[in-house]
Amino acid sequence: MNYEVRALTDQDEPIVWEMLMYAAQEPSLQAVQAQDCLTHYAADWGRTGDMGFVACTEKQSIGAAWLRLWLNTDKGFGYVEDSIPELAMAVIPEYRGKGIGTALLMQVLKSAQIDYAAVSLNVRSNNPVVALYQRAGFVKVEGSEVINRTSGISFNMICKFNR
User: Fold this and answer.
1) For residue 37, which phi and psi values (nearest 5 degrees)?
2) Which conformational region is residue 144 in: left (phi greater than 0), alpha (psi within -120 to 50 degrees), or beta?
3) Which fold has domain 4-160?
4) Are 156 and 124 in contact (CB under 8 A)?
5) Residue 107: beta bridge partners?
6) Beta-carbon neighbour count of residue 130 at 10 Å?
7) pLDDT digits (tens, 9 = 90+) for 53-83
8) What is the reported pTM?
9) Where are the domains of the chain?
10) CA distance 16 to 38
11) Sign of the CA dihedral with 40 first, then 42, 44, and 49 last
C-alpha cells in the first residue's frame, strides 16, 4: 500500500475535523460539530502545543494521530495534567488493519517524547485499538473508568517516556 506520513500543519484543520469524525465514531462532521465535548479536539487547530501526523494516499487523507495540550478549564476526555498532551487518532474504516494506525502512533510518540514526559488518551473499553496502545507502552490509568457519551465505558491510558 502506497501512502506517506507527514506532519500536520496549521492549514490541516479540515483533516483534523474529518479524522475526529472517525475517532468519535460519528456519522458526519455536523454530528461532531454539534457536540461541544468533541469540538475542542479540532477547533482552532495549530495553536500552541498542537502537533500530529497524517497518512495520505495520492487521493486522500486516510488517517491521523494528533496531540493537544489543554488550556485552563478546556480539557479533553483523556486529560491527566496540564503538561501532558492528549492523543486522538483515527484511520478511515477501509484502511484499518494495514499498519497505518501503528505507523502514525509510533511517529507521534517519537516526536512527543522530545518535549513531553508522557502522552495520555481516552478510549472506549470495547475498542480493539486498546491492544495497539498497550503494545506502544500505554497503561490504563486506574480509577479513570467513566460512562461515556454513548453510555458505554471509557478509560484513560498514559504512556510515560524514559527521559
Assistant:
1) -65, -15
2) alpha
3) Aminopeptidase (3.40.630)
4) no
5) none
6) 16
7) 999 999 999 999 999 998 767 788 998 898 9
8) 0.94
9) 4-160
10) 12
11) positive
